[in-house]
Amino acid sequence: MEDTQQEEMQNPALPVANSVHPAGRFIKAMETPIDTIPRRSRLDSIMANLRNFPPFRVSREALIVVSLLLVAIVGYIDYLTGYERPLLLFYLLPISLAAWFGSLLTALGIAVVSIAVSLLSDVAAGIPALGFWNAGMAFVSYALFAGLLSKLQTLVGELDRRVQERTLALQREMVERQRLDREIAQVADRERRRLGQDLHDRLGQHLTGTALAAQVLKEKLAAKSAPEVTEAEKLVHYVEEGIDLTRNMARGFFSPELEADGLSVALEVLAENISERFATNCIFHGQESIPVRDSVVATQLYRIAQEAATNAAKHAAAERIDIRLTVDGSKLTLAIEDDGIGFSDKLSDSKGLGLRLMRHGAALIGATLSVQRHGRSGTVATCKLRIPTHSESNFAI
């Protein structure tokens, strides 16, 4: 299962003239091209900031006072300019404030006051005769404007309410999805553990008994100088290889050191197993005093290191692999570096299952995962996770 996941990290259908780029056997790509990521325009950013801005609240009394004050200011300016230059358009400012922040009835009241102030300013300016017809048309215009603006404010308020409801529903859905992801990860980990224990305890013990029986048979045949001794020796060798294969498969599913001794010891044992299986110099660099008490976090970090290191050993022809676990302040960093063939910068985003599982595991624990070239050759996979400070929980997750 582990080998299948790692082999799927390649892109078998990559079209290359008469050959496949050697880096394609390691990984198709690490990051999505920047050009394919939709960028937010400046208008989108402004609208997002406006939506996040706290709503403006004003009392009805204060709104009326401010609107009347603006009507008085416009009326005084209307008086100064004379009746030949009416400022009926500028009375829309207090009417707009009343309609938007108040109600339609308040806006109509301000419109009546605006008409009265406009007539008084014309009388004070010395108008020969008042135009009541013009005043009536102005009031109708103000009423229509206030009605439209009040309706628009109602629609905007309803839209904001629906957006808030959808946002809350989306947040609840995301929380529920994260909970389900963690439960699925825990169930998958339990199944891995069960399969690993079954392989080690049942199949491993059965093969061990078979190897002992084959060894006894070989010794009996050797005592009789039977010609089948050579075949018996092959049988013992094959059974012993099956025991080693079963042990390696069991360790791929389940690491007993992860629960017994912690993440650092489990990563150190992982490095030793990779060195033994693939004849590669795999070294773990870390401190044993870094406790990761959350079993889900420890398991996902271990799986990420296991996937990256095994893939580097099997497909990248790496001669040296370094697994580093460090803590810098409130950040825990897991880095897997190798000197293998690396990957091509021109390759697109990988659709391999192994890399997607690594990214999903990192997202599951709130970590960030990046896979990049390491110099001219080789690859470095880095997983960064914020951990509580020393005052919060003694560097424990």
Description:
The chain is 62% helix and 9% strand. It is an alpha+beta fold and 397 residues long. A hairpin with a 2-residue loop joins strand 2 (320-328) and strand 3 (331-338). Helix 5 (104-124) runs antiparallel to helix 6 (132-223) and helix 10 (295-315) packs antiparallel against helix 11 (353-364). The longest helix is centred in the middle third of the chain and has 92 residues, at 132-223. Residues 1-40 have low confidence and may be disordered.
Indicate the low-confidence ranges by residue numbers: 1-40
Roughly what is the average pLDDT, rounded to an integer?
Answer: 78
Major β-sheet, in short?
5 strands, mixed
Tell me the total number of β-strands: 5
Give the strand order, joined by hyphens, for the main sheet.
1-2-3-5-4
Distance between the first and last residues' Cα? 29 Å
**What is the succession of H and E elements?**
HHHHHHHHHEHEEHEEH
Strand content: 5-15%
- Derived structural class: alpha+beta
The tally of helices reads 12
Radius of gyration: 38 Å
Quick one: overall form?
rod-shaped
Relative helix content: 55-70%
